[in-house]
Amino acid sequence: MISTAAHLQRRTRHLLQIGSSHARLVPRLLLFKESFSAACYKNFVPKLQLERHDNPVIVELRCDEKEKQFQKLAAPGKTIGVESAEVPGVIEATGDMIDLLPQVVYPMSGHYQLRVPNNHSDTLSFLHPTVDVTVRVECPEDFRVVIEDELALATPKMWQFGARAFLTSEHVRVRWFKLDRPAYTDYGEQREQAQK
Hints:
This protein is mainly beta. It has one helix and 17 strands. Strand 14 and strand 15 (158-160) form a beta hairpin.
């Protein structure tokens, strides 16, 4: 019997200004891993992978399911990321191996930091089949964030992909850029500014 599993994913990205030309990107990834087969999904290893050239600092990787809890937490100023033995140029953090039981949801999360230019982008890549993806961004008002993809719902700082299924290795590009003036937060503000 083939075991199948899916991720339901929520990603929050904090973009913080750190000087005139750079920002700190602080993504938090929350996913819910669930096996949909009648059999146990054996030897699943939670993993967070990032590109070495981005100089990532992986701060935390954890599972909060009551029977399979673990937390890997970096010391202040350190990382739990190491060079991947399988893929050159990849920094990864791995969690404890878990046998996923049928119909049990495993809440897992990862937290990392990147120093990035004000006008830049990040790629959300999927290591496993994933559904119900939501991306939220918290950033200063003078940044604009764009996701160019088919979306079920989009607001200025939140994007939902609805029932779309992402397969292994598919990805979405998140772009941001700094504006000369703060972005409008609602249509009423836009109308007021246009009338002045």
